[in-house]
Amino acid sequence: MIGRPKFVLASGSPRRLALVNQAGIEPDALKPVDIDETPRRGELPRAHATRLAHAKAFAALEAVKLDDELRGAYILAADTVVAVGRRILPKAEMLDEAGQCLRLLSGRNHRVYTAICLVTPREAFRQRLVETRVRFKRLSSEDIETYLASGEWRGKAGGYAVQGIAGTFVVKLVGSYTNVVGLPLYETITLLGGEGFPIRSGWLNAV
Asked: Among all residues, which ones are annotated catalytic?
């Protein structure tokens, strides 16, 4: 569409890109940023997600300012946190990390928080935080061992991907499903539309 404002997704996550595409938006660029995601001492899950989303958006903005073709774009960043009570579960990279997460989540309720941060063309920052409650079935040793062998958990918050095999572990989900995948679509599109982005411009080409 001629004259459509540019849109930058500050993420390298294939899941977030797929969700943005599902909403009929094709980013003009992907700008994943590398920041320290270590929780601060005593930092609560909601505050942690909000801080990281803002930090990712700010870092992406600094990169976009150096690109003549992208300057003035809408920039979207997000961070997803899986938590049991006040405890923030890691984005599992090691087998033992993922195993610990799954054993902790087994038969219990947990919460998934995704903070989204939108930078407008005027460089204003707009944020939302979305919470979803999830309950897992009681996982057997075989469930855990076989899931770990699948490798699906790697790099995922809480050591699982709800859109994959781990979807079979979910007994109950209250709130946004896309939030658990990594980007709450309703809130994201509402935020973009409220800031003047033409969210329907790509719908006619959607298949």
From this structure: 79
